[in-house]
Amino acid sequence: MKKDQFVPWLIRLTVLLLIFLCSYMFLKLAPIWEPVLKVIITLLVPFFIAGFITYLLHPIIEKLHQRHIPRWLAILLIYLLFFGGVGFSVVKGLSHIIKQLQELAVGMPDLFEIYHNWIRMLNNQTSHLPPFFHTRIEQTLVDLENTLNQSIDSLIAGIKELLNGIFVLIVVPFLVFYLLKDFESVKRTAWYITPKQWRKHACSLLKQIDESLGHYIRGQLLVITILMIVAALSLWAIGMPYPILLGVIIGITDIIPYFGPILGALPAVFIAAAISIKKIFLVAGIVLFLQFLEGNVLSPLIVGKSLHMHPIFIIFALLVGEEVGGIFGMIVAVPILAVIRVLFVYFRTYRTKH
Asked: Which stretches are transmembrane (predicted)?
C-alpha cells in the first residue's frame, strides 16, 4: 500500500479507536452521570407530555377557530373537555383497575390450580408418551404462572409509582394551557432558534411528518378509547371477572397492527377457559365483534389509510419493536417507522434534485 493511501486509513483507525475509548470511559463514569440524567429526564417528562397533548389538541382548536369561535373560547372548551374527561377517567377508572389487578393477583393460584388439574388429566390420558413430554408441559405452566405474577406485580408497582409522581404530572395541564394559548409564539421562537440554513428543511419535514403521523395518532387514540369502553361493557354484560382491566388490555393492544387483537384476547380467553366452555365462546364472540367494529367501521372512518406503508414493512417493524422493547416497543414501532419513512423519502428526493 502506498504511503499516501496508508495515511488516511491510519487516521480513520485512530478516530475509531478514540471513539471506542471515549465510549468506554463514558460507560465507566455511569455512576456519576446516571443520577444527573435521571433528574433531567424527570424534569423534562412533563414538558414532553404537555407538548404531545398540545400537538393532539391544537388542530381541533384551529378547526373551531375557523368556524368563527373565538380562539380563547375554543382553547377553554377543548381544554376543559380533554382534562375533565381524563381526570374523570383516572379518578373513576384507575382505582377499579388497581383493585382488579390485586384481585387477579390474589386469585391467580386458584386459576392455575384449575389448569394444573387439566394437566394431570392430560398426563393420565397420554401416559404412553415419553416422560419429557409431561415434564415440559408442567414446566411451561409453571413458567407462565411466574411470568404472569411478575407482570401483575410490575404493573401495580408502575401504577403506584405513577401516582407517587402525581405532583410532577399536575404541572402538565398548566403547561398545556400556556402552550395552546401561545402556540404561535412558540412556533416563532422555534423558527428563530433554528439555524437559517435548516429552517426550510425543518418546516417541510415537520409538515410531512404531521401529515403522515398526526392523523394516525389522533385516530388511533380515539379508536382504542371506544374499544376499551365497548370491550369493558361487553365483558361486564356476560359476567366476566375483571371487565375493566381486560377491556383496557384489549383496547391498548389493538393499536398494534395484526398481532394486537391476538395479544389483547389472550388474557380474556385464558380467564374464561378456567370458568366454562360457554364463557370461552362468549368472549371469542365479543373479540370477533370488536375486530369487526374496529376493522370495518372505526378505523376506516376515523384513521383511514394515513400511513401508506406496505404490510411487510409494518410486520418487520413490529418484530424489531418486540425484540427491543416488548409490548411497548410494538406499540411505538409503527409511528417510528412512519417517521423514518418520511425522512428517507425527503432526503432521497433532496439528493435527486441536487
From this structure: 6-27, 39-57, 69-91, 162-180, 216-237, 327-347
Contact 137, 119 (CB under 8 A): yes
The amino acid sitting at 145 is E
Say if 173 falls within a structural domain.
no
What is the pTM for the complete model shown? 0.68
The grid coordinates of residue 129 equal 408418551
Within the chain, residue ranges assigned H as helices are 3-28, 30-66, 71-89, 95-125, 131-164, 166-169, 171-181, 183-193, 196-209, 215-237, 243-253, 260-273, 277-293, 311-353
Are the C-beta atoms of 330 and 259 separated by less than 8 Å? yes
Q: Is residue 313 part of a domain?
A: yes
| DSSP-derived secondary structure for 134-187 | HHHHHHHHHHHHHHHHHHHHHHHHHHHHHHHTHHHHTHHHHHHHHHHHTHHHHH
Dihedral of CA 231/234/236/241: which sign? negative
* 250 within 8 A of 264, measured Cβ to Cβ: yes
pLDDT for 335: 82
- Per-block average pLDDT, block size 10, for the chain (354 residues)? 62 81 79 79 81 84 83 83 78 73 69 65 60 64 64 63 65 83 80 77 78 77 86 89 85 78 81 81 88 77 64 78 75 81 78 68
Question: Which residue range forms the structural domain that includes residue 333?
Answer: 307-353
**Burial level of 13, CB count in 10 A (0-12/13-18/19+)?**
exposed
- Residue 17's pLDDT is 86
Can you tell me the distance from the alpha carbon of 280 to that of 266, in angstroms, rounded to the nearest whole number?
A: 11
Residue 227 resides in a domain:
no
Tell me how crowded residue 221 is: count the other CB atoms within 10 A of its CB.
Answer: 14
Q: Which of 333, 300, 299, 327 is nearest to 223 (CA)?
A: 299
Alpha-carbon distance of 317 to 311, in angstroms, equals: 10
